[in-house]
Amino acid sequence: MLVGRFQIMASIAAHKFAQCITCHAWSPDQTMVAFCPNNNEVHIYRLVEDKWEKVHVLQKHDQIISGIDWSARSNKIVTVSHDRNSYVWNQEEAEWVPTLVILRLNRAALCVQWSPKENKFAVGSGAKTVCICYYEQENNWWVSKLIRKRHNSSVTSVAWHPNNILLATTSTDGKCRVFSTFIKGVDSRDSGTSLASDMKFGEQIVQLDLCFSWAFGVKWSPSGNTLAYVGHNSMIYFVDDVGPSPSAQDVAFRDLPLRDVLFVSERMVIGVGFDCHPMVFTADERGIWCFSRFLDERKRAPSSSKYGSQFSEAFGKLYGQSKQGVRNDAIDPTKPGGGVHENCITCIVPLRKAGDGTVTRFSTSGLDGKVVIWDLESRADLSL
User: Fold this and answer.
1) pLDDT, greater one: 350 or 324
2) pLDDT in tens, 322-341
3) What is the dihedral of CA 271, 180, 126, 366, to 10 degrees?
4) CB 327 within 8 A of CB 319
5) Which of 176, 206, 370, 352 has the alpha carbon at shortest distance from 272?
6) What pLDDT score was predicted for residue 309?
7) Range with the lowest mean pLDDT among 8-12, 34-38, 291-295, 341-345?
8) Distance CA 203, CA 182 (A)
9) Could you tell me if 86 and 79 are in contact, meaning their C-beta atoms sit under 8 angstroms apart?
């Protein structure tokens, strides 16, 4: 089930990575991991002879680093912080050199992600604003264009569509939105999708009002045909045909809310959050999504009954209905504790992808200070 589980957990215990990890990212060759130990620093560890050794400490921010992403092609690290700043780090010989990105924010920067082509990155903030940053060769600096007056509260997560132009966001106003980030001179019109063919920067494609609580993590499927995001009401939402007339489903579960999601294939999603146990959601041949199982075998759903009490049955009837009228039974799992993670999982990152975009290995980190690698190829019971 786990690749390098004992190795990584032993390294955390031996090297005392952190009491808490805010976010993490991997180098292109996956031999180094960068994370924020819930302060204003980025620690980079390298795997040397089956042991993790600290090789760099990046110090430039003044407050907690809330987001980090490591580009796979250009080997650049981008960080954002509560200090309202962003830095792009370039490795020059043995040192990492920071370049300040002017975000023009008056509130904390909360999340960041490189675009698929890595010519842009998006920053969500507590200023109800999304910054789309790109590099200007003429002036030799990073600049940002802002998407303003679209969100009513903090932007908690951003996710790039595979076409490099569409961007999905979630917010504590309970909504998920999709925008165009087309920038003349940076993007081309041959994006391969009609949604991105004739749109201006910052144009809103759709606003999804499915969640009536804070909305957190959001992700696109490998093909970009399906969008998934989670809410603080212990529900996960799936949206197909994103555009003027989208079709949506929701799945309710009895466990604690999720914080982030990851498509491992077109029909399988991993959700992580406050429950500390990764959850697997799958879609059948009809495209109907439902909870499948916990990835951590230490936590199992009982097979004796669907519900543990009359209250839970009523809960399932009330919240287990999808927007298309399909029933998604709430699960009543046992809670033995002692799983791989011992506190809230806040970050899930893909590690290995197949040619079709299927994720076969990913990592999670959380408030327990652990980084855990999960390998789906070794799970015969999980079909991608």
Assistant:
1) 350
2) 334 333 433 344 444 557 88
3) 20
4) no
5) 370
6) 36
7) 8-12
8) 9
9) yes
Mean pLDDT score, 203-218: 94
**Amino acid at residue number 133:** C
DSSP string across 215-252: EEEEEE-TTSSEEEEEETTTEEEEEES-SSS-EEEEEE
Whether residue 1 is contained in a domain is answered as yes
Would you say residue 231 lies in a domain?
no
CATH code for the domain in which residue 4 is found: 2.130.10.10
Mean pLDDT for 224-237 is 96
Task: Tell me how many domains the chain contains.
Answer: 1
Domain membership flag for residue 262: yes
For 276, the domain range is 1-17+255-299+335-384
**pLDDT tier for residue 105 given thresholds of 50, 70 and 90:** very high
